[in-house]
Amino acid sequence: MRPRVFCGIAAAVALFATACSSDGGGSSDGSNGGGSAQATAAGAFPVKVADCAGKETTVKQAPRKIVTTDAAGLEMLLQLGAGDRVIGTGFPPGKGSLPAAVAEQGAKVPVLGDALIPKEKLLGSGADLYVDTFGPMPMMGAAGAGPTEEELKAVGIQHVLLLSTACAGTPKAAKGPRTDLSEIENDIRRLGAVTGTVARAEELVAAMEKQIGEVRTATATIAEAERPGYFLFDFDAGTKQPMAVCGKQVANAVITLAGARNVFADCDADFRPVSWEDVVAKNPDWIQLAVRNRGSEEANRKAFDEAEAYLKGFPATQGLKAVQEGHFLRIGSETTTIAGVRNADTVRQIAATVHPTLVKNGQ
């Protein structure tokens, strides 16, 4: 959640700062095939991983000290069981935003930067592996440049990218809108291979694919024209000019797999500012009140209430079909727009809301 167009970077960075192929979710397009990890056996080393340009890095042994750029990489490592080796992160997760099972461990990870980790701090961290969600971010100037490969190598840090996000603005990016979670699953497998947690990675991916597969089977009879229009309202990105999630954002895949239709799927980017006139013209059937986790159920409920009240009180949105019918989904931003294991949970949650006779949440 970067690499991508400027609006996509800005939206993803803001999100992280406040927190940023199979029958299930797989794909046969091979968009990231060259970047998959190669290991001779489960947990075996060396492991080769490639960057967005196909350049390979050989990881000779399981890392002992890991630094990650942000909450997305941190959460993946925690879920893989490698959290005890994470010695620092940038863009730390917001209070309450991590899954309960790993929240306590995640809270103990030192924060090396409230946003991007300063280069000097990263190089002096003592890490032997740097898990990078973004890659170079030239649109952010010097702050987004980060250490060069030569600088990382000089201090013994190997660099591994999350290709599902870092390659979004490169020729390696998949063409057209994202409609599945295969790239995220590949990243989980890559991190599993690199950290020696292959078996756990396969468990996580299998659970994702099972859940998504069940939803796809249940909604298979819904024709494209019958899919309800869906708008993700990023309340925290501001109300003066809404920020749309476009076809290349992971949320588009989540919405599509849930049997809905992202009304801004034809936007060729990750995120893009739109006007309220644009939203009114799309007239979505459902609106997700995608607020960011405030750290408690009470605070989250208040934020959802505020987002809903805004749409009901704003003259431009009062007449929208979703507003008139009360078709709101109270689902946080993090599990929808940040790549991770919980994307599959959100697929089911959306599907159970927009297709309640076909999909039951949690079943």
What do these coordinates show?
There is one protein chain. The protein has 363 residues and is α/β, with parallel strands linked by helices. It has two domains: 6-215, 3-Layer(aba) Sandwich (Rossmann fold), CATH 3.40.50; 222-354, 3-Layer(aba) Sandwich (Rossmann fold), CATH 3.40.50. It is 37% helix and 13% strand. It contains 14 helices and 13 strands. It has helices spanning 6-18, 71-80, 100-107, 119-123, 149-154, 163-166, 182-195, 198-218, 250-257, 276-282, 297-313, 321-325, 334-337, 343-354; strands at residues 47-50, 56-59, 66-68, 86-90, 111-113, 129-132, 158-161, 229-233, 243-245, 261-262, 271-273, 286-289, 328-329. The chain has a five-stranded parallel β-sheet with strand order 5-4-3-6-7. Strands 10-8-12-13 form a four-stranded parallel β-sheet. A two-stranded antiparallel sheet has the order 1-2. Strand 6 (129-132), helix 5 and strand 7 form a beta-alpha-beta unit. Helix 9 (250-257) crosses helix 14 (343-354). The longest helix is centred in the middle third of the chain and has 21 residues, at 198-218. The chain is globular and about 60 Å long. The two termini are 29 Å apart. Mean pLDDT is 86; it is low at 1-35.
| Estimated structural class | alpha/beta
| CATH level 3 topology of the largest domain | Rossmann fold
| Tally of strands | 13
Which superfamily, in CATH terms, is the homologous superfamily of the largest domain? Nitrogenase molybdenum iron protein domain
Give the CATH architecture of the largest domain. Answer: 3-Layer(aba) Sandwich
Classified by CATH, the class of the largest domain is Alpha Beta
What proportion strand? Answer: 5-15%
Global outline: globular
**Sheet with most strands: strand arrangement:** 5-4-3-6-7
Number of domains: 2
Radius of gyration: 20 Å
